[in-house]
Amino acid sequence: MAAAQTIIVTGASSGIGRAIALHLSEQGHDVVGTSRGASGLERLDVTDETSCAALIERVLARTGRIDALVNNVGQAMLGAQEECSVDEVRALFEVNVFGAMRMTGAACQAQVRQGLGPRGSQARNSGPGAARRGGGVKGSRKPMRAEDNP
To answer: How far is CA 23 from each of CA 7, 9, 18, 99, 119, rounded to the nearest angstrom?
Structure first.
C-alpha cells in the first residue's frame, strides 16, 4: 500500500460520506471526517468561510499536511420545481456549490503552502434534476493540479 495520506471527508456523519471515511480509514489513511454537529467528527459549516479556514488550520496543526479533500457535504430538496422558492434553492447552492468551492479553495491553498501544488477536485450532485437538488458542481471535476494549470 502507498504511504498513508491525510484526507478530509466532508459530510462524514452518514451515507456515502461515512462509507468513504470508513473505507479510507480501513486502508490506513488518516481521515478527518466532518459534520455540522455529529459527535466524534470535526465540526464544519461549509456556508461559513471562517469555519472552513479554521478546519484546515486544525488539520494542519494536528497532522502537518492535507493530501486530499472529498467534498461530500450536501443537501437535497424533494418536490416539483414550481414548489421550490428561490431562497430555498439559493440555500442549497450555498451548501452544495459554494460550500464545495470554499473547502476546495481552502484545501488547495494549504497544499500550495505545503509545496504540493493544488491537487483537489470536486464532483457532486450532477445529472438530471441536479439544479433542483442543489447540484451544479459537475463542471469542476477536473483535477486542479499545478501541472494542469501552467
So the answer is: 12, 11, 9, 24, 21
